[in-house]
Structures are given as C-alpha cells and as structure tokens.
Amino acid sequence: MSTGDSFVPKDALEPKLNPSPHDRINLARTKLQKAIDFLPGMRPGEYLNTEDQQQRYQNNGCKPEIFNYRPGYGKTHYKWWSEVLLAVQTEPKDGDVENKEFGLFVDFHGGGFTTGDIRHGGWRQKHKVQFISENNIVCVCPNYPLMPWFTGLEITDAIRMFWHYIFSEDFQNHVQALHAGLKVRLENIVVSGDSAGAWLAMYSFLYGSMFDLAKPLNISVVYLQYPMFRHYNRSKPDDGWAFYETKFTEDDIKEHGEKLRAAWLEWRHALADEKINEIPFNVDIKRPWAPLGMGASFLGSTHDNLWKEMFQNNDTKVKDIVERLEDIQKLPTGAEQTKYKKPANIPDFYIYHGNADKNCLIEDTQMAVDKIKQIFKVGDQEPHVHFKKLKNIVHGFDHNYDASTDFIKDIHEKIQAKLAVKKDGS
C-alpha cells in the first residue's frame, strides 16, 4: 500500500460491486469502466492525496461528517452519489450553539461531471475550508451522479433531489449530529462550485424556484471558480494533448475516444433493453475517486464532441448554461409565468477565472456574465457581479491556495459583508 493509499477509503481503493441480475448490464459496466480508465496503473491515492490534503478539514479547524440522503428514485438503495459531507467549525466561536442559527454554504465539487468525491480531502479548495472555519457557517458538499454512467438530465434531477433534502427533516437531524442544538438558516444561502461544480451552482440559482421546494430557495451569493458554462470542449494546448503526464496524438485520442463512445452506447442500450428496462441509479458503479473517471472528461472534451453527446444522450433540450441563459433571454414578456419562474431574489455574484485556462474558456464566463446582467436587471439596476480575471492562470489552480491570498481574501471579505457574517459569532 502506498502512502497515498492509506487515505483512501477501502470502498474506493478495492471496490466490491454487487452484480446486476442482468448479464448484459454487468458486461456493459465492465467494458465502460475499462474505456474510462484507459491508462494502465491509474488508481486512487495518486492525485491530490498527501496527508495534509486528506486531513484538510481537520487541519484547518473544521469538523466534517459524511451522511447519506435518499433521492426519490424508487427502489434505489444507498450509493456513493447520494452522500453529503457536512462541515462546521470544530469549536464554534460562541461556544454554545443552542438557539443560534448558522448560515448555509453549499459547495458543488468539480471534475468535468466525470470524477470527484466529497471524501477526497485534496479535492476541496483549502481557502473554502478556511472560510467555513472562520465563520458561523455550515458547509454542505454533495456527491452527485457522474458521466458517462449518467446523463445530464439524470445529474440535474439529482440536484433537484439534493435541494429537497436540504429542506427536509433528515438534513436538520444531520446538522444536529454535528453539534447538538445547532440550527441552519435556510435563507441568504451561498452556493459555490469550481469548474463543473460552478455549472451546478448556476443551475441551482437559475431553476431553484422551479424545484417545488417546501419554501423558496433564497440564494444571496453565487461564488464560482473557473466555471464550466459550456459543453466541455477543450482548446488544444500549444504543446499538444497530454493526460496524466502522457502525450497523445490526434490518432491516439480518436482511438480511445471511439472505444469510449462504443462502450457508452452499449451501456445505454443495455439499460434500455426492453427485457431489462433498468435505470443507472440501481446499478453499483465504482466510486469515482480521482484520478478514476478523469479519462472520460479528457476523451469526451477532446474527441468529436463526445462529452456533449454523452451529456445530452440524444436530447438536445439538455443545454449548457450559456444556452439556457440565451433561452431565458428570448422569452417574451410574461412567458416566465408558464415557461420559466425567476429566482426568489437576485444574489451577488463572485467569480474568478484565469485567462490561460484551456479547459473552460474565460470568454464563455464573460458571455454568461453579460447575459446575467441583462436578464436579471431590475429597472436600471444590474446584479452585482465581481468578476476577477487572472493573468496567465490555468484551470484548477487553487486547490492549495490559502484564504489569505489577496484576491481570495478580497472576495471572502465581500461575501462576509453581504451576509453580515462576523467571526465572533454575533
């Protein structure tokens, strides 16, 4: 066992997947897993997995706990994608949390919609963990279904179910398990996410009023890092394609990409077999602990619009964030009563993105920002958007950045002021 392996849960390092009662499903699952993790030797424990990273919450003053919630998918039983991590200050600043209400910070992980796990400490940005530990805030980080096992529609369905969980008695009980007497204020919510997680944060803001929740989804801050607002389609770097320190030619990518496409189609056809008629939520799937799963985002985003194909699964109504903003922008006056219900309130937006990002282009973020300002303008007043453009910065750069980093500190202070959050617990 390597040093990194010692921080990986056994069900991620040595998964024991229950067989499906359908041989065709089992065979398709095996083929698709092989096509995703096509590089030999890839295993959990080799990526963002030092002791400091794996103990990130504990070492930065937070108490994390993992809970399970049950989305509404009929006969579905417990799966990794229905886990949530709740984190709070190890020792709340005011000592006694009885009759106190903490703010809510929801953070969606990135990973191209193909990888990432809430128990992977190094996958969380250090500065966000520090923000939680310095304020009276409960942070909730959900796992969610991932491609190519699931489609974009299945992912967004799960996000709706997650928000129903937030407004449920189960969530309140889980909060109490962190600290007896602890309560969470289900308004003035912060939603955050990096890369693909930013897609889900924006989706929550755009459509939360249509989730049929117990009370309106009141989001005060949308905090995004290098967001993925388009169907994932990478720009080729000047030095060519590379994945996991391995160089790839166009022919290499085509070969592996077509194998992934064939395996994915076989998986979807197996699920849809009229003699089977299964949903992926009922099938055991390997926990996507990075680097596992990363091969699907690499091949999908570099070969023949494959990522978009797997995300949409032949349903062109499943659109990216910019496309959704364009559709909202085109609605005639009054159409929102039947086709789109605007959010309960318009939050402040805090975004940073590097201009050297080849994975998710800063130009796409600027396009989304421009549309947000136009769509959610009230009279002459545009929404507050703080968009920090970083020079010569690439994608996913900030996992180990400290909250004292100048541009991050500036954003955190603005969020604190917006929420009237004080470090002394008042």
Automatic annotation (TrEMBL):
Active site: S195
Region Disordered, residue ranges: 1-22
Pfam families, per the entry: Abhydrolase_3
InterPro entries: AB_hydrolase_3, AB_hydrolase_fold, GDXG_lipolytic_enzyme, Lipase_GDXG_put_SER_AS
Keywords: Hydrolase
GO molecular function, one term: hydrolase activity
SUPFAM superfamilies noted in UniProt: alpha/beta-Hydrolases
Claim: Transferase is one of the keywords in the record: no
Domain (Alpha/beta hydrolase fold-3) ranges: 106-245
Entry keyword annotation includes Plastid: no
Family listed: Belongs to the 'GDXG' lipolytic enzyme family.
Name the UniProt record assigns to this protein: Alpha/beta hydrolase fold-3 domain-containing protein
